[in-house]
């Protein structure tokens, strides 16, 4: 692990340790409405993180597919069509020539 990351993690560890040791007990009543509010906050954070990860994942997957498609592009053979319209007969005749070859 490089030095700045290690120093940051060590600072966070000591800071959280100090917060834990130096806190005082708050003898207070937490009513059910407050508890449901906290649950809603946690659920919102989880949903937001999931959405962010999903968006990031889709962007990365799209970029990878795009790079893969650029590397594997093959030109499709040109077909002779009647008036620029591809018909079922054209497709069937292509299948017959491929099986006879």
Low-confidence stretches: none
| Spatial shape | elongated
Beta-strand share of residues: under 5%
Major sheet attributes: none
Multimerization status: single chain
Mean pLDDT: 81
End-to-end CA span: 61 Å
What is the β-strand count? 0
Question: What's the helix-strand series?
Answer: HHH
Task: Please state the CA-atom Rg, rounded to the nearest Å.
Answer: 31 Å
Number of helices: 3
**Helix proportion range:** over 70%
The computed structural class is mainly alpha
Structure summary:
It contains 3 helices and no strands.
Characterise the protein shown here:
This protein has three helices and no strands. The longest helix has 40 residues, at 32-71. It is an all-alpha fold and 101 residues long.
